[in-house]
């Protein structure tokens, strides 16, 4: 153990930071009728009957006076969407209420909206707590909203994933079923299964689908370019694949340099649109079991894997360009990196 | 706002639960020299100079006596791996220290290991807090460990993902670049890019690789079975693909029913092993940018997508059976569902 007298506060703060907390904004009405508020994560529940909560305020805080003289305060538990609100009320030199719409609670205490919960309190005790004052308030009224929480840990904001019942969280990492590549492949494969069935029903294969998908980002491409893009996904397009699509009335081939150009027919374009709509429907189905927060977490993490493995793409093609052009699910736009 | 006198405690507890917290176990030495401990999430920091922390204890708790008469207590901030410890110290009718190895701190207060941080405290104040007592302690020594935190929110444990600097967390969901299917495809594609390059260098395609991968889970399979498994991944294996592999000395074909059997040659088996090793290396590379907690989160979320989309697999083949057999990356074992 580190003896406290021999070390600086930095290490102590770091140790305290390993306790995760929500983030609150505590507000009151100042002696001159001004709105006062600050970001605090020292909030906690105290008592159920009577209902009481507490939080601590630095004795050096410019807001101490207002909270000491007011008999009421409000605590807002911030939601995931309120990171900006948290930052705004943590700044020392700004009008913290700038651009923020407030309602009025008991004794005109300002109330913020958009939070996960808020509590209006009557100050019951002010306790000595070293360089802080501990405010204990009896809750006179409260509201609760179903919003994902803003979480703070080790000096950073975080996203919270609630564990499902009986969900096993392994700390180990092995190359079993939860091998990352296997999971990615399986998730992708299952997600896209309905589309694959459709393709097969039409007598087409993965290669045919890839050709159509690349074309749906803009047709008139050269055969040589198409073949090069297909190779990157591990497909070797043979002449027969193009001929199959011609035979189905989906594309036309025009003679020219580098193997000529490939164009959609009207039927081909229609088919590509239907494929895109099916993709979207398949993804919406897959996400029904995930809540908005989980989808967000998954997107953030996949984004990191994508950035980490980005260097594996051949430079020659232009990495972003390749992905924009070879986006088989018709999702145009810029790739964030 | 809900007026507190008109509602029951359940709603109030729910509102309080929207404030995320870490989880602690607070311990002390009882008057008869017995070890006393309990799970609490009402912990928080109070003061930096002097260093002080606080937590609240129900006046009805059987541990109240011990904490009231002892002048010291220890707070352990639990790590993600200590969910069981949290549960054990939250039970009312068990020997909470059963199977738990303790060290001894100041005044023989029991100290647990495996936590993210622990604080030894001298009780400074015991404050009135409705149906709870607020214990404020001066920290006399502490230790901090680099372990992911156990987090509690809305009555459930959670996993925390720290936001990276400048990471944009969209609350909206659209079918742009962060379309789930696109992200899964891109992550998988990039992760596996080194293997694809290897396959292409050997003049083989995705279909060839799939044939070899399925065989690596056990060769001697019938041609008909292989073709059926390949179709599920969107591949139509033609006779030429098998002949290509024979020409490369990787497989042999034996005549028989349903198209005959396919076997590895010694060189083919060696090649499959090398492919598996390359897969593992590629995944390790991809995960270098993710910490253990992020990998864990990603695995949990992909697991949910996989379960959600499970129904898209054709029943006829046996869903688990298919995945065990068609596990192209050589990851045997049971699929958790």
Please provide a written account of the structure.
Chain A has 337 residues and is an alpha+beta fold. The first copy, chain A, has two domains: 18-158, Roll (Pnp Oxidase, Chain A), CATH 2.30.110; 180-325, Arc Repressor Mutant, subunit A, CATH 1.10.10.10. The first copy, chain A, is 35% helix and 25% strand. Chain A has a seven-stranded antiparallel β-sheet. In chain A, a hairpin with a 5-residue loop joins strand 3 and strand 4. Mean pLDDT of chain A is 81; it is low at 170-177 and 314-337. Chains A and B meet through strand 1, helix 1, strand 2, strand 5 and strand 6 of A and strand 1, helix 1, strand 2, strand 5 and strand 6 of B. Strand 11 (132-144) of chain A pairs antiparallel with strand 1 of chain B.
